[in-house]
Design brief:
Pfam families: AMG1_II, AMG1_III, PGM_PMM_I, PGM_PMM_IV. Catalyzes the conversion of GlcNAc-6-P into GlcNAc-1-P during the synthesis of uridine diphosphate/UDP-GlcNAc, which is a biosynthetic precursor of chitin and also supplies the amino sugars for N-linked oligosaccharides of glycoproteins. Keywords: Carbohydrate metabolism, Cell wall biogenesis/degradation, Isomerase, Magnesium, Metal-binding, Phosphoprotein. The structure is a single chain. The protein is an alpha/beta fold. The protein has 4 domains: 167 residues, Alpha-D-Glucose-1,6-Bisphosphate, subunit A, domain 3 (Alpha-D-Glucose-1,6-Bisphosphate, Chain A, domain 3), CATH 3.40.120.10; 117 residues, 3-Layer(aba) Sandwich (Alpha-D-Glucose-1,6-Bisphosphate, Chain A, domain 3), CATH 3.40.120.10; 146 residues, Alpha-D-Glucose-1,6-Bisphosphate, Chain A, domain 3 (3-Layer(aba) Sandwich), CATH 3.40.120; 84 residues, Alpha-D-phosphohexomutase, C-terminal domain (TATA-Binding Protein, 2-Layer Sandwich), CATH 3.30.310. The chain has 20 helices and 19 strands. The strands form 5 sheets. Strands 1-3-2-4-5 form a 5-stranded mixed β-sheet, sandwiched between helices. A 5-stranded mixed β-sheet has the order 7-6-8-9-10. Strands 12-11-13-14 form a 4-stranded mixed β-sheet, with helices on both faces. Strand 18 and strand 19 form a beta hairpin. Helix 9 runs antiparallel to helix 16. It is globular, with a radius of gyration of 24 Å. The N and C termini lie far apart (59 Å). It binds 2-acetamido-2-deoxy-1-O-phosphono-alpha-D-galactopyranose and zinc ion (ZN). The site of 2-acetamido-2-deoxy-1-O-phosphono-alpha-D-galactopyranose (NG1) has 12 residues, from loops. The site of 2-acetamido-2-deoxy-1-O-phosphono-alpha-D-galactopyranose has 12 residues, from loops.
């Protein structure tokens, strides 16, 4: 046994070098043998973890990546002396794809510096994995080497409904077994449910206990909070929820068992697109991404004019609302809208509770937020707005700087974060009137209703429903709070997207030189013209977004900026 004694790591002694036992290194290498690396491929842990196209999965590439993620999870758990999570999903991607993401101890995304370690290990061939694992262990644990001995690494994992999931789980288990990790397989779960469980486990017995670390605990916590916020309010008519034929379907149906029905003062949820038996149905002509990008309802949803509808994505961490009016015009209420709806409600409640002066409430958006939404928040709601680069981790960190930070990407991914200060104030304030009591009770319940670990479609949907009930608003009333500027999103394929370097929360191009000047020139040609171009973090393309006061102009601006990108991209 060549583990060094932890006492050797005291100051003034040379840095110890950890040498792992040979049998452990052999186990790592041997365990990886059935999952060889694809030599021609480079893997990168991006904004959505590792995600791959079907063709790569069938050529056996993702199993190798998942095996290495098991190893990284072991190191991460040791480093943080806590349980970490692994979610096997490719979210809104087509059914043949799959992917994997790591969940940090507080139920948030993996810390950015570890994305690099994950990338290194994923690109290491099986026969070098033992060596590389030992190297990373030295790099990451050297300052707290005693943790090697303290307790085993602990991991919980789950997967969405994709057909490749069970096979990928075998690769994951092989890695976890090789390095003696204690793990729990939670089977099928939504991404936010797994994040919830991780946070519950790591906050157990602390003043910030998040809840029971079980699926049942998740439903019970949400249902109890829902009943409290709903107290005396009525939800107008049923809500139709398109579950993208993904894991959100069975999980939402389970939650419904815990919720009061409309007759009991609760909610009537009609579940559609919940076929998890036919794997190819996942995200096919349905789901939040389809609705947001195509700007239309799923063809088979059978929604009637005026019906209140929403769509989840394949792993239920995104939600968007929509309806069709009597003239059959489709209206989308996306993440920007959910953010403003939630912020209005929370700001009102803190005002009624008499605690608004002590709390800083703000909204976090990305450059993709509609200009009308940003203007509405700043000028009408008079709340501050922070704009961050794309990717939930950026929004999450910015939201954590407010006492109540509401963050949403336009595509429907987001949540609300309450600071320790806010939670303490809301929990401990003494009401001085029945109105204040009601507001404080509602705020307390919102803290539980909203999944603060991560954006959660099911929780966000219930939150939107209770706010609509409180305001007695239809989707049309909600839409009329402000009118979106017409906009257009274009995907431009270029030789090398990495030459497009964006700054200022990705709103301006720093390089190639000259490109931004041309974009600015075009923007100035239109009333309310705004456009930007940035390299996608998840696809090999540059995305162009443009908005203006009319649809024709927004489209014209988008195509002009796309042309600028094509020109500089082919130089
Ligand atoms: P990229 O490919 O970097 O634009 C997309 C979405 C993000 C986020 C990530 C992660 C748009 C314009 N971009 O990022 O909002 O959801 O995927 O899945 O929707
Ligand atoms: Zn998702």
């Amino acid at each position: 046994m060549s583990y060094p004694d932890p006492r050797d790591s005291v100051l003034n002694k040379p840095k110890p070098v950890i040498h792992l036992p040979k049998d452990l290194l052999d186990r790592i290498t041997k365990g990886a043998e059935p999952y060889p690396i694809l030599a021609e491929r480079k893997y990168e842990y991006g904004t959505a973890g590792f995600r791959m196209k079907a063709v790569e999965f069938s050529n056996v590439g993702l199993d190798h990546v998942i095996y290495t993620v098991g190893l990284i999870a072991a190191l991460r758990s040791k480093k943080r002396n806590a349980t970490v999570g692994i979610m096997i999903t490719a979210s809104h991607n087509p059914a043949e794809d799959n992917g994997v993401k790591l969940v940090d101890p507080m139920g948030d995304m993996l810390e950015q510096s570890w994305e690099t370690y994950a990338t290194v290990l994923a690109n290491t061939p099986s026969d070098k994995l033992g060596f590389e694992y030992e190297k990373l262990l030295n790099e990451t644990l050297i300052s707290n080497i005693s943790q090697l001995h303290e307790r085993p690494a602990k991991v919980v994992f789950a997967r969405d409904t994709r057909a490749s999931g069970p096979y990928l789980v075998t690769a994951l288990k092989a890695a976890l077994d090789a390095v003696n990790v204690e793990y729990t397989d939670h089977g099928l779960m939504t991404t936010p449910q797994l994040h919830y469980i991780v946070r519950c486990i790591n906050t157990m017995n602390s003043p910030y206990a998040f809840g029971e670390p079980t699926e049942q605990g998740y439903y019970e916590k949400m249902a109890k909070a829902f009943k409290t916020v709903m107290h005396g309010r009525t939800i107008q008519g049923p809500v139709t929820v398109d579950c993208a034929n993904g894991v959100g379907g069975p999980k939402l149906k389970e939650l419904i068992k815990y919720l009061p029905s409309a007759k009991e003062g609760g909610i009537d949820i009609k579940v559609v697109n919940d076929d998890v038996v036919k794997p190819e149905a996942l995200n096919f002509e349905c789901g939040a991404d389809y609705v947001k990008t195509k700007q239309r309802a799923p063809p088979n949803s059978n929604a009637q004019p005026g019906d209140r509808c929403c769509s989840l994505d394949g792993d239920a961490d995104r939600v968007v609302y929509y309806y069709t009016d009597e003239q059959k015009t489709f209206h989308l209420l996306d993440g920007d809208r959910i953010a403003t709806l939630g912020a209005v409600f929370l700001a009102d409640m803190t005002r009624v509770a008499g605690i608004d002066q002590k709390l800083k409430i703000g909204i976090v958006q990305t450059a993709y937020a509609n200009g009308a939404a940003t203007e509405y928040v700043e000028k009408v709601l008079k709340l501050p707005v922070t704009i961050t680069p794309t990717g939930v981790k950026h929004l999450h960190h910015a939201a954590a700087r407010y006492d109540i930070g509401v963050y949403f990407e336009a595509n429907g991914h987001g949540t609300v974060l309450f600071s320790e200060n806010a939670i303490k104030l809301i929990r401990e304030s003494e009401p001085k009137s029945p109105g204040q009591k009601h507001a404080l009770d509602s705020l307390r319940a919102c803290i539980d209703l909203i999944n603060q670990a991560v954006g959660d479609a099911i929780s966000d949907m219930l939150f939107a429903e209770v706010v609509l009930a409180h305001k007695s608003w239809t989707l049309e009333n909600w839409r009329n709070t402000y009118i979106d500027l017409p906009n257009r999103l274009v995907r431009v394929v270029v030789n090398d997207r990495s030459i497009f370097k964006a700054v200022d929360a990705e709103r301006r191009l720093e390089s190639p030189k000259g490109a931004q000047d041309e974009i600015d020139k075009y923007c100035q040609m239109y009333i309310k013209g705004r456009a930007f171009a940035r390299a996608s973090g998840t696809e090999d393309a540059v995305r162009v977004y443009a908005e203006a006061h009319s649809k024709t102009e927004a489209e014209k601006l988008a195509s002009q900026v796309a042309e600028v990108v094509r020109k500089y991209g082919s130089m």
